[in-house]
Amino acid sequence: MNILMRELRQGLRVFGIWAVGLAFLMLGGPVKFDGMSAAGAGSMNALLERMPRALLALFGMGDGNIETLGGFYAVLSFYAALVVACYAISLGTAAVGRELQDKTCDFLFTRPRSRAHILAMKLLGGLILLTALCLLNLVFSLAAPPLYGMENTVVQPMLLFCLGVYLTGLLFFALGALLTVLLPRAEQAAQLSWAALLLVYGLCVACDMDERLGFLRPLNVLRCFGTREVLEGQPHPGYAIALVVVSGGMLTAAFLCFRRKDLNAQ
C-alpha cells in the first residue's frame, strides 16, 4: 500500500496539469458549437465543403456533421483520445522506468516484496490516475452543454465516446509498460510508444481521407467506436472487447517479462 500511495503522490501534480488541459478542451470547446448555432444552419458545413478533405482529416473532422451536437462532440472526443493516449504513455513508461531513471532501484526492489507485487502496485497507481482522468472527461462532457444553455440530446453517445477514450488510454498505458519492460532503456520505450501513437494518428487521418482504406479500421484505436455507428445507435462492442483483451495481454506479458528484467541496465 505504501508503494501505491507513493506512486499516486508522485503523479498527482502531473495529473493536475493534464486535467486542467482536458477541462479547457471539453468545457471550452462547445463555445465554438454555440457560435456555429448562432450563425445559422448550414453555414459551417458550407465552409467545410470548400476545405481540402486532407485538412479536415488532420483535425478529426472527416467523419460526421459538426453542426449537430453529436458530430461536434465526436470531434472533441477524438482530441480527448489523443490527450488521454499521451498521458497513458507517460504513466505506463513511468510505472516501470521511473526507478531506472531516478536510480532508486536498489532502494525499492530490495524491500521485502516480490517484483510482481511492486509492479502490480505501480501499475495500479497509474491505472487509478488514468481512470480518474477519464472520469473527469465524462464529467466535463456532461457538464458542458448545460453550461452554455444547450439541451444535451446525445447523452448515450457521450457515454460511448468516453468509454472509447478510456479503452484507447488503457491500450497505450499497457503498451508503454510492456515496451519499458522489454527494452533496456525507458527512453527507448517512450520514443517507440510515441511513434506508435503517431502511426495510429496517421492511419486515422488516412482512413478519413480515403474510404477505400476502411480495412485499416481495426488499427485505428483512436476511434474505438465509429462516429456514425455511435450517432446512429448501432455501436459494435466486439472491437471494444478486443481492445480490452489486447491490453490485458500486454499487461500480463509485462508481468512475466519483468521477472527477468535486468534492473541495472542503463
Keywords:
266 residues; mainly alpha
Q: Could you walk me through the main structural features you see in this protein, from its secondary elements to its overall organization?
A:
The protein is mostly helical. Helix content is 76%, strand content 0%. It is built from 11 helices and no strands. Helix 8 packs parallel to helix 11. The model has no long low-confidence stretch (mean pLDDT 82).
Largest sheet: none
Radius of gyration: 20 Å
Q: Find the structural class using helix and strand composition.
A: mainly alpha
Q: Say what oligomer this is.
A: single chain
Helix content: over 70%
Strand residue percentage: under 5%
Order of helices and strands: HHHHHHHHHHH
Overall pLDDT metric: 82
User: How many individual β-strands?
Assistant: 0
Number of helices: 11
Note poorly predicted spans: none
Give a brief outline of the structure:
The chain is an all-alpha fold and 266 residues long. It has helices at 2-28, 30-39, 43-49, 53-58, 69-102, 105-109, 115-147, 155-182, 186-209, 227-231, 237-258.
Q: Which secondary structure elements does this structure contain, and how are they paired or packed?
A:
Blueprint: H1 2-28, H2 30-39, H3 43-49, H4 53-58, H5 69-102, H6 105-109, H7 115-147, H8 155-182, H9 186-209, H10 227-231, H11 237-258
Helix pairs in contact: 1-5, 1-7, 5-7, 5-8, 5-9, 7-8, 8-9, 8-11
